């Protein structure tokens, strides 16, 4: 199937674009590899950030260096080429095998400093 101008329409698939000529074929997504829960290999720097009414020494991670299975507790920042992911206190971010970020609220029993 092509559009009127002869180009292939694009369809989102798990946040990635694929051409209509790929429809019906198995598509393998490239993974980012797996790593330990500790994300320290991706740490770029630390910086002061304003969270919950106060300055907090905050770790800043390089998104492209994170691996599947890395777990980042908030507060933290993940920098990507065109955006940043801000992880507030009371949340954690887990990177899956495809490099997607899954933010989860941390139960109060695991994060005594979490705001309600």
Record keyword descriptors for this entry.
mainly beta, 3-stranded antiparallel beta sheet, single chain, 116 residues, 4-stranded mixed beta sheet, elongated, 2 domains, 9 strands
Structure commentary:
The chain is an all-beta fold. It folds into 2 domains: 1-30, no CATH class; 40-105, no CATH class. The protein contains no helices and 9 strands. It has strands spanning 10-13, 16-19, 43-51, 54-62, 71-73, 76-79, 84-87, 91-95, 101-105. The strands form 3 sheets. It has a 4-stranded mixed beta sheet, with no helix packed on it. The chain has a 3-stranded antiparallel beta sheet with strand order 5-8-9, with no helix packed on it. The chain has a two-stranded antiparallel ribbon with strand order 1-2. Strand 8 (91-95) and strand 9 form a beta hairpin.
Short description:
The chain has 116 residues and is an all-beta fold. It has no helices and 9 strands.
Q: How much strand content do the residues show?
A: 35-45%
Measure the end-to-end span. 51 Å
Strand order of the largest sheet: 3-4-6-7
Helical region count? 0
Shape: elongated
The low-pLDDT segments are 9-15
Radius of gyration, whole Å: 18 Å
H/E topology pattern: EEEEEEEEE
Percent helix: under 10%
**Main beta sheet strand tally, sense and closure:** 4 strands, mixed
How many separate domains make up the residues? Answer: 2
Average predicted local confidence, pLDDT: 81
Extended strand count: 9
Q: Structural class, from helix and strand content?
A: mainly beta
């Amino acid at each position: 199937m092509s559009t009127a101008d002869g180009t292939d329409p694009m369809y989102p698939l798990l946040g990635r674009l694929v051409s209509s000529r790929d429809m019906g074929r198995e598509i393998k997504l490239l993974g980012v590899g797996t790593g330990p829960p500790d994300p320290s290999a991706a740490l770029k720097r630390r910086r002061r950030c304003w969270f919950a009414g106060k300055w907090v020494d905050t770790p800043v991670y390089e998104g492209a260096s994170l691996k599947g299975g890395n777990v980042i507790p908030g507060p933290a920042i993940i920098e990507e080429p065109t955006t940043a992911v801000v992880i507030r206190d009371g949340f954690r971010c887990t990177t899956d095998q495809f490099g997607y970020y899954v933010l989860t609220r941390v139960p109060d029993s695991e994060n005594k400093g979490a705001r309600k």
